[in-house]
Amino acid sequence: MSADPERQLKGRPDFYRVELADMRIPELCEALDVWRSKCHEDGIPVWGELDFLDFDTRILPRMILLDVDNGPGFGVYRYWGTRVASFNGVDMTGLRINGLAPARHARYSEEQYRWVIEHARPSLFVACLGEKAWDRKYEAMLRMPCRSAPDAPLDRVLCVGFYDDVPQTIEEYVDAEIDLENYFDPDV
What we know:
5 helices; Beta-Lactamase; globular
């Protein structure tokens, strides 16, 4: 589950992957319903048949669209919503995943995108950004695969994020055993 071997050895993952059945965040559930409504027989929608206008306006600022090219950093962000930018403190539109900071965030984000592409199905990922007690921000990110054309490989990932400064908020919306309170060592 973790991209960082040190954290894996300590038994603390960089993120949690949560089954969609355990997701209860209303905006993310609505986004997943829209994504599913546009899926082809293979269970994957084509970007263009699915687009930003299909989603409620309150979801748009929480959205990210990644163009997967399998180069260094795995892909380029085509769209980085305003809520995502304000939460992360940067607009990554036009930039690569490996440009995210801190480096741990870039590593686990790439790992999540790869998981979605390799498994050809959406999933929810929960993580903590910021490693100091005073700088902790929590995210629940729904990542959903797409194609750019019916005959294209999986080459897009559409994401919708839910963010909060309080871990209990996300824990209340995710019906799974995750421990965000003890995510990092207290001495870090």
